[in-house]
Design a protein that fits this description.
The chain is an alpha+beta fold. It is built from six helices and four strands, in the order αααβαβαββα. The protein has a four-stranded antiparallel sheet with strand order 1-2-4-3. The radius of gyration is 43 Å and the shape is rod-shaped. The termini are far apart.
């Protein structure tokens, strides 16, 4: 560096000039290393949208100031009394009770066949062989509860008070 300083006139002997040349030499060394190493191409990111939105990286844990529901849930809302609403007492329903050992009920539209089966077992102490359901044109669900041979639908209907 001394010989470089002496070779230039006084006006050029500024420190920034020599610093510039020193950094250029370091950069040249780095470039030489990169040339010797294997060529690795940087993958270009494919942009599909016109606007760039800064990515959201901050995820805070929830810290609610008040409960969103004022009252806790009651648990199981579909109890046996809500599932089975009322027995059907039409002539066709009576015929089913007498001939094919089947009780007919209006049930909640959200009630499933296993739930209906369980509710009938709890309310009337009878075993169900099978349950058929349909949704009537007025939007209510009707369930045909076929009882096993051990139980008589006529006796159960008398206990309920249909007949």
């Amino acid at each position: 560096l001394k010989w470089l300083q002496r070779s230039f006139p006084t006006g050029f002997r500024h420190r920034s000039y020599f610093c510039y040349h020193f950094t250029m030499a370091k950069t040249a060394e780095k470039v030489a290393k990169a040339v010797k190493a294997a060529v690795s191409r940087k993958q270009k990111k494919v942009r599909t949208k016109v606007r760039f939105h800064r990515p959201k990286t901050l995820f805070k844990a929830r810290d609610p100031k008040y409960p969103r529901k004022s009252v806790e849930s009651r648990g199981d809302k579909m109890d046996k009394y809500r599932i089975i609403q009322c027995p059907v007492t039409t002539e066709s329903a009576m015929k089913k009770i007498e001939e094919i050992n089947t009780l007919v009920f209006l049930v909640d539209t959200k009630a499933t066949k296993p739930k209906i089966k369980e509710a009938v077992k709890q309310l009337y102490d009878v075993q169900c062989a099978k349950v058929n359901t349909l949704i009537r044109p007025d939007g209510r669900k009707k369930a045909y509860v076929h009882l096993t041979q051990d139980y008589d639908a006529l006796d159960v209907a008398n206990r309920i008070g249909i007949i």
